[in-house]
Amino acid sequence: MALTLTDPPVETTHWTAAMMAKAAGISVSSVQRIWRARGLRPHRVERFKLSNDPQFVEKLRDVVGLYLDPPAHAIVLSVDEKSQIQALDRTQPGLPMKKGRAGTMTHDDKRHGTTTLFAALNVLDGTVIGRNMQRREPAALRGKGARPACFHPPDA
Fold first, then answer.
1. Percentage of the chain surpassing pLDDT 70?
2. Residue 111: how many CA atoms within 13 Å on its side-chain side?
């Protein structure tokens, strides 16, 4: 178990069950059973990046504070933007999958421009509101009143 938390003996990114079995002098299935029982997955790595913004902690507290203790009569939305989504289409139709053969598709596409997707999660009730825009225009996001214009539900 402790050996799993050390670096592997050769220049690899992580322990494999076979390398661990050889190093520990046990079978591969024993290594797999031990890892499974303890929820260990040495081949999985989650990446992260720390902010170098000197005001990061202050900003983080402001944002988390909105979720934990929102102002009275306020709606809290978690907003994200995915810009430059490409609208693509294949230049020719693919062939369907058949027994013994995978489906096919061409390697090239026809481009139909780009769009920007804005989405908001209403933290209170879990509903998602979204809108596509041809360009990223900050003025369109501000809108009139307290809510951003692009997040008005269709019936509003």
1. 84
2. 6
Q: Which two structure tokens, joined as six digits, stand for 132?
A: 């596509």
Residue indicated by tokens 């825009």: 133
pLDDT at 94 over 50: yes
Strands across the sheet containing 128-133: 77-90, 109-122, 128-133
The residue behind tokens 């390697």 is 107
Shared-domain flag, residues 27 and 82: no
Question: How far, CA to CA in Å, does 106 sit from each of 113, 114, 153?
Answer: 19, 21, 39
Domain count, the chain: 2
Please determine, for residue 18, whether its predicted confidence score (pLDDT) is greater than 50: yes
Span 136-154, pLDDT tens digits: 555 554 443 333 333 444 4
Residue 97 is assigned to a structural domain of this protein: no
Whether 19 and 83 share a structural domain:
no
Q: Which two tokens stand for residue 84?
A: 């430059």
